[in-house]
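Question (not urgent): is this output format expected?
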Amino acid sequence: MKKTLSIMLALIITITLSSCASVKIDNNIENYAADVEECCASLFMPELEELPNYKEVEYYSKKSDGLFAESSIQLIVSYEEEIFLKEKERLKTAYTYLDKPQKLDSDRDVYTIPIEKFSFAGFDFKIAVFEDTVYPKNFGMVGISEEKCQIAYLWIYAVDLDYICEADENEIKAMSEFMEYHFSLE
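Got this back:
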């Protein structure tokens, strides 16, 4: 009887803690620098002052607290065509990018990053590599939209996220679902 009550109490506490999670969406560019620092993204996300002369910048962040806290940062920068082409060229060497999918080092056959390059919402994305990156817990992506002359910088910080998909799943579909959940690209 004590064991059953203990299990029921543990379940109630877990459900209560999980239901207390809240999601905070922020579009205020004034919070960008603090969010970059809080999400350990300063090696990847550009400083606004260092971006070349842009037409417009759009900012979006999503933070969920609770049992499985996660944060994502999205910065989309729009340029005139001439500046866009220079920025696009600079990005070829500004970061090191993955050259193959990443699998979890375990007995499970799962991908932490199922594809290294993909298209989503009009952007062609590449996933950046840093020494301290632990896919998919913290990583950055650069997306380029030729049509809109835009560059998207996306960062995810989800310490409890272990993988994006199983090896037998559709990698493109899994990555699209991941993007839809964490970011707000139109």
